[in-house]
Amino acid sequence: MSAPDLTHASRREAIAFILKNAFISAFVALVIFSLMIGVRTEAGPTGQLIYWTRFDDLATIVAVVFAGSIAVELLRQWWGPVGVVGAIAPSVQRGLDFAGKAAPPLLLIFAFLVPVLFYNQRYLLDLSILVLTYVMLGWGLNVVVGLAGLLDLGYVAFYAVGAYSYALLSTNFDLSFWMCLPLAGILAAFWGVLLGFPVLRLRGDYLAIVTLAFGEIIRLVLLNWESLTGGPNGVSSIPRPTFFGIPFTRGDDGFAARLGIEFSPTHRIVFLFYVILALALLTNWVTIRLRRLPIGRAWEALREDEVACRALGINITTTKLTAFATGAMFGGFAGAFFATRQGFISPESFTFQESALVLAIVVLGGMGSQLGVALAAVALIGGFELFRGFDQYRMLVFGMAMVLLMIWRPRGLIGHRAPTVFLKQNTAISAELAKEGRG
Amino acid sequence: MSHESILIVDGLTMRFGGVVAVNGLSFAAERRKITALIGPNGAGKTTVFNCITGFYKPTSGVIRLTHDDGRNFHLERLNDFRISKKAKVARTFQNIRLFPGMTALENLMVAQHNALMQASGFTFLGLIGVPSYRAAERRAIDRAKHWLDRIGLIDRADDAAGNLPYGDQRRLEIARAMCTEPALLCLDEPAAGLNARESAGLSELLLSIRGQGTSIILIEHDMSVVMEISDQIVVMDYGVKIAEGAPQVVRDDAKVVAAYLGADEEEAAAVMESGA
Ligand SMILES: Nc1ncnc2c1ncn2[C@@H]1O[C@H](COP(=O)(O)OP(=O)(O)OP(=O)(O)O)[C@@H](O)[C@H]1O
Ligand SMILES: [Mg+2]
Fold first, then answer.
1. Can you tell me which atom of ligand 1 is nearest the CA of B50?
2. Could you tell me the residue range of the domain that residue A399 belongs to?
3. In a shared domain, residues B58 and B113
4. B188 shares its domain with B209
5. What are the residue ranges in chain A where pLDDT is below 50?
């Protein structure tokens, strides 16, 4: 520190490092893009190959990569080493802690007020219903991926099972939404167990691939079993939800007429909003409770070390299956809700992209953190809409935002786990546990 | 004899393809005693543990465990988690296997999974928070606290296990095994990587565990620990038993000294030294 030429030397070193990195990145870009962008090929009128070069575009790209690499490195140095929490001033840390504590109740209050605040903005109401659906899916998948540590790339399968369960039960047997909801959950959980069995011995990448295939199988079955599912045409005129038997229609026995208020299609939207909010909160509540029960601790222990779990007498088979079943059940609930909201479903809604999106929400949120998953769902789904103005660059902007976020917070938005039980003084803990238990 | 012994291993053989890691090994571990299993590197000690605790299915042989009440378990027929759950055999690992992202307290709570699972009515009663489950959980916390106290980690109860110093992690792993309330505790090199003071503390801990009635089988290279606390020693080399008996007897056995000399001079020196 005291010797000026020493800092000078270290700065020169840093500059050399940044330049070296930038040159390497630029070179890689040159190699990759020389064929992709540098040479443009096309089939001529008689089928012969026509090509022309676009070296100016190539040069631009390489220059952008070079500059971008320098910018990223500078940003990195400016932020300091990733993960240095101690560098944050204590007062700032305290502020963050407080924000972390205050955020859930504030978000909850805000969520309850959304229909009041945006009553006349149908678009925003629809968007918040969508966001809440993904919050719920994220929380459901979080049980499997975040807690039990089982990488599931086929989560959308359970969403589909739930949606088709409700659609088929209600159109064929005239069962109401509230009757079908538990059935959809049970059926999805059943499929979760079915998926669980063959993959019990698989881990990591292998598990991911098999679950991915499972998701595709379910979609293909839905697509091809035309007599039951209607194939690519899907199931239409799925009954809309009723307010415990009172439909949201214009007629005399409709919700508005019974209440003696003027009919408005928004009533149903608001109702749907509160239904999905309640379902999401149920998911959250159950997950938080489960984490503090032996089964939840076993899930997390399984994520940490499977061999040690076996040595402690934990039945790995049932523990994994319950994780799959629980996650699948929530997915099934969300699916049933999706079906009743849309009134029409088809296999197109249940592609791999959905699984990937829900997984991105869980990873971005910080594996295992309930608040993180909720924030990530808002950011991802809301962000998607926000970037609509960028047209075809939407995905690009969006991808860049994700990459930056992952550099900044590699373990997700909320990267720490709260212990499920803690010790300070004997009496204090049990009071703490009891209080949180009732909440 | 059979009622004296908690564990009888008879003709145990474990083959991996062409490698015979354990070859017709027979020995008995006495109840409420510490039995040490020693031998040069690669002798097959860990493999014996893996057979006892169900991680490997023995190629042949019988492993019989007898509880205090006379109940018998054929461990070679039980599979993995049932050996800990039903037969009450707990183990630690040569390379520590804690749950690093969970706190010390949580590690000890996970060890009480089966008891708590039952108390929580397989989750359903626990989910609605019945008082009997809360009481059971409080008891589990008390047991965890008791063990944290005994291993001197009560002040670090809420720290992630992965953040603890190495020696503390070793002790925590033993405490975690003890929280399953085992009849037989199998320890794979618990003193590895500990300094002299920590080793002495470990010896004390193991003697107190024996004192409360738990039988122990111990794999250990640290001869000062082995000679100080074991009641009986079984020596293995190349998968077979080459000597057995009280520490003084084994220490003076020519075959044992030769096995260690052939394997590793340092270890042989350690054996001789503790004999001198
Ligand atoms: N799963 C396995 N597959 C193949 N060979 C194995 C396996 N496990 C152990 N072995 C072999 O069995 C022999 C005994 O190994 P083991 O780990 O039981 O020795 P050890 O006595 O515990 O040695 P150390 O003191 O170094 O821990 C070694 O030759 C080892 O290579
Ligand atoms: Mg070994």
1. 18
2. 121-408
3. no
4. yes
5. 1-4, 82-87, 425-439
Q: 0.90 exceeded by the pTM?
A: no
- Considering every ligand atom shown, identify the ligand nearest to the alpha carbon of residue B92 and give its number: 2
Residue type for position B14: M
How far away, in angstroms, is B94 Cα from ligand 2 center? 6
Atom of ligand 1 nearest to the CA of B47: 18
- Do B156 and B131 sit in the same domain of this protein? yes
Q: Which domain holds residue B108?
A: 98-181
Q: What is residue A251's DSSP assignment?
A: S
In a domain, B93, yes or no: no
Atom of ligand 1 nearest to the CA of B221: 25
Task: Based on the fold, state whether residues B28 and B64 are members of the same structural domain.
Answer: yes
Between B79 and B170, where is the model more confident? B170
pLDDT of residue A134: 93
Whole-number pLDDT of residue A164: 92
Measured in angstroms, the CA of A311 and the nearest CA of chain B are apart by 6
Whether B273 and B195 share a structural domain: yes
Ligand nearest to the CA of B93: 2
| Count of CB atoms situated within 10 Å of the CB of A93 | 13
User: Domains in chain B: how many in total?
Assistant: 2
Largest CA distance in chain A: 88
What DSSP line would sit under A139-204, residue for residue? Answer: HHHHIIIIIS----S-THHHHHHHHHHHHHHHHHH---HHHHHHHHHHHHHHHHHHHHHHHTT--H
Mutate to test the pocket of ligand 1, among B45, B49, B91, B237 (most ligand atoms within 8 A of CB): B45
Centroid of ligand 2 to alpha carbon of B253 (angstroms):
23
For residues A277 and A132, is the Cβ–Cβ distance under 8 A? Answer: yes
Whether B81 and B5 map to the same domain: the answer is yes
Question: Which residues fall within 8 angstroms of residue B74, CB to CB, at 6 or more apart?
Answer: B62, B63, B64
∠ CA(B74), CA(B80), CA(B82), 5° rounding?
Answer: 65
Same domain, B24 and B139: no
Q: What is the pLDDT of residues B98-139, one digit of tens each?
A: 988 888 899 999 999 988 887 777 777 777 777 788 888 889
Residue B243 main-chain phi, psi, to 5 deg: -165, 160
Q: Considering the domain boundaries, does residue A430 fall inside one? A: no
**Which of B235, B227, B208 lies closest to B274 in space, CA to CA?**
B227
3-state secondary structure of B186: strand
Å from CA of B48 to ligand 1 middle = 9
Cβ of A305 and B90 within 8 Å? no
ipTM of the complex: 0.87
Q: Is A102 helix (H, G, I), strand (E, B) or coil?
A: helix
For residue A184, CA distances in Å to A180, B36, B140 come to: 6, 57, 37
Whether A290 contacts A327, CB under 8 Å? no
Together in a domain, B142 and B216: no
- Looking at the fold, whether A396 and A316 belong to one and the same domain comes out as yes
C-beta of residue B45 within 8 angstroms of C-beta of residue B255: no
**Structure tokens that stand for B184 in this block:** 């037989």
- Using the 3D structure, point to which of B130, B152, B181 is the last residue of a domain: B181
String of DSSP letters for A5-73: HHHHHHHHHHHHHHHHHHHHHHHHHHHHHIIIIIEEEEE-TTS-EEEEE-HHHHHHHHHHHHHHHHHHH
Largest CA distance in chain B: 65
CA distance A295 to B110: 9
